[in-house]
Amino acid sequence: MKLGCCYYPEHWPQGIWADDAKRMVEMGLSQVRIGEFAWSRIEPNPGQYEWDWLDRAIQTLGDAGMEIILGTPTATPPKWLVDSMPDMVAVDEQGRPRKFGSRRHYCFSHQRYREQCARIVEAMAQRYGENPAIVAWQTDNEYGCHDTIVSYSEAAKMGFRRWLADKYDHVDALNSAWGNVFWSMEYRSFDEVDPPNLTVTEPNPAHVLDYRRFASGEVVTFNKLQVDILRAHSPGRDMIHNYMGFFTEFDHHDVARDLDVASWDSYPLGFLEQFWFSDEEKLRYTRQGHPDIAAFHHDLYRGCCAGGRWSVMEQQPGPVNWARYNPAPLDGMVRLWTLEAMAHGAELVSYFRWRQAPFAQEQMHAGLLRPDSEVAPGGDEAALAAADIQQLGQIGETAKSVALLFSYEAAWLFEAQPQGQSFRYLELVFEMYSALRQLGLNVDMVSPDAALDGYKMIVVPSLPILSPSLVERIAKRNVPVLFGPRTGSKTADFAIPADLAPGTLQQLIPIKVSRVESLRPGMAEKGSDYDVTRWIETVETELSADEMVNDGRGIIFSSGPVRYLASWPPAPLIKRVFAAMAKEADIATLDLPRDLRVRQLGHVHFAFNYGSGDCDITDHLQGGELILGEALIKPAGVAAWTAA
Prior knowledge:
With about 650 residues, this protein is α/β, with parallel strands linked by helices. The protein contains 19 helices and 25 strands. Helix 8 packs antiparallel against helix 15.
C-alpha cells in the first residue's frame, strides 16, 4: 500500500514547492493529488489557458519522485462560466438556485455545462495525458457533496421527461406504473410531468423513486463523459473518483463501472458526530470514531470496482472543520486508520491535506503540516505508518467469507416512504455490519447484482425490490442467508406485490407479511433478552418461529438455509443469529471486546483497539507470531500477527 496527500500548489508560493515535495518523500509519501479545484487558475478567462504554473508544479513533484493523481476541476466552475449561463446551477427542493460562492455549483443535467466540462477535461488530457508523472486521474470531486445530486432545475425537468419517455414509451404506461389514477394524477403526455417537489403534500412515491433513478443516471453519464476523454488521451492511467461517507444519493456501483479504482474520503470523527450515533457512542468514541465507521466504507467501496480495487483519497489527519464539534484524534488514531485501510486491502491512503490552509472555508481543517509549515501530529503519525507498511511488506488477498448486499435503490425507496421516522436504511445496514464485525468476521459488501460464487454466508439487511435473478442465485448457493425487514415489500414500480411481502422470496421461504408497524421511541416489544424497537411485522406462515416476542409474534423464521427477520434487528439477537449462521457455514468466529476489531488480509491478522483502555489479545493469537505491536494493545494501538 502507498501513502499520499492532497496538495494545492496554487495556494502556496512557487518557491516552497520543491521543499514541500522533498518533505513529502521524507515522510514516506509517494503519491499526491492535485488540480481538482483549480479551474479559475487554469482558465482565468474564457479560452485563455494558463498552463505554466501547473507545468512547473507537475515537473517539481515528478522530479522529487512523487506519482501524481491529477483531478479534473469540474467541481468548481469559475465565476465567468456561471455568469455566461446562470441556469447551469442546481436548484434545491424549495426552488432556490444553488449559487456561486463555494463549490459544486452546477446541475448534472445541464447540457451546455457538460460541453464546457468536456472542453476543459480534453484540454488537460491533451496537455498532460502522456506525462510520465501522471499515474491516475480523479474525475471531479465528491459527486453530490452538499446535497447536489437531486436538482429541480429546468435542465433536470427536461432531462427527466426525456428519461421517462425512453423508459415508458407511452404516457399510459407511466400512469399505470405509478398508479396515477389515485388522486387524479394522470398525465396526457410526458411534457406534463414535473419534478416531484413543491407539491401540497407528499408526492407520489413512485414518481420520487423514478426521479432518484434519473438523477443517479445523470451522475453516471456525467462521469463517463470525462472518463472516455481521459482514456482516449491518457492510456494506461487509472480512472478514480472519490466517494463520501454514509452517502447514498447516487448508485456508486453504476458509476464505478467506468472506473478502475473506487476511492473514498475518510473522516471518522466527523461522521460519528454528524450521523445517528447515540450520545453515549459519541462520547465513548469522540477521539477515535466508532470502531466500524471506517471499515464499513472500506468494505463498501472495495465492492464497487471490478477486481476490488479501492483507495482512501482523503484521510482525516486531525480536527476537521465541518462537523458540529471537531475534536482532535486520540494520539495514534491517524496511524491506526491508515493501517486499518491496509488490512482491508487499500492501494493508497492519501491524507487531506499536506498543509493546513490559513484562509477561506477550510482554514480550520488540520493537515499533515500546520499553516506555519511545522509538522502537525498527523504528519508524525503518517511517517510512523509509512515505516509500519514497509515492515509488513506485501501481504496478499483474503478468501471470500461473508457477503453483505448493499442497495442504493433501497435507500432511495425508504427515504421516499419510510413508514416510520427512524427507519433509516444506512443505519440498518450499519447495525448488521457491526454485528458481523463484532464476531471477527471478514465482510465483503457487494451489489445485489454481484456474483455470489464462493461466499459461505450471505446477509441482505433489506431489499424491498427483490429481483427474481437474485432469488435464483441465492437458491443455487445453498448457504446460510438472512433477509431483513421489508425485503420483497415492493415491486419495481413501487407497489405492494400482489401476493404481499416478501414477494418473490416466498419461493425460498413460505411466509407472508400481513401487517407492519413502526414504533415510536419508547415503544418496544419484549423478547427473551432484547427489545424490538422501531419496526415489527406480523407474519402469516405454517412455519414455527425460531424467535418470538412476548406477545407470541414470530420475528425470525427459517426454511432450510434461508432466514427472514421480521423486525428491526435487536443487537443481542442479531449477533446470536449471525454466530449460528457462521457455525453452519463452518466459519470461525471470535468473542471480541466491545472496542476491539480484527481483520485478516492474506496470511496476516490485524487487531485495532478503539477503546480508552488496554486490550489483551493473547487468546486471539492462537500461537501465531506477532510481527507488529504487542499482545497488550494500548488505546489507538495496532497489532499484527501471522497464523500458527
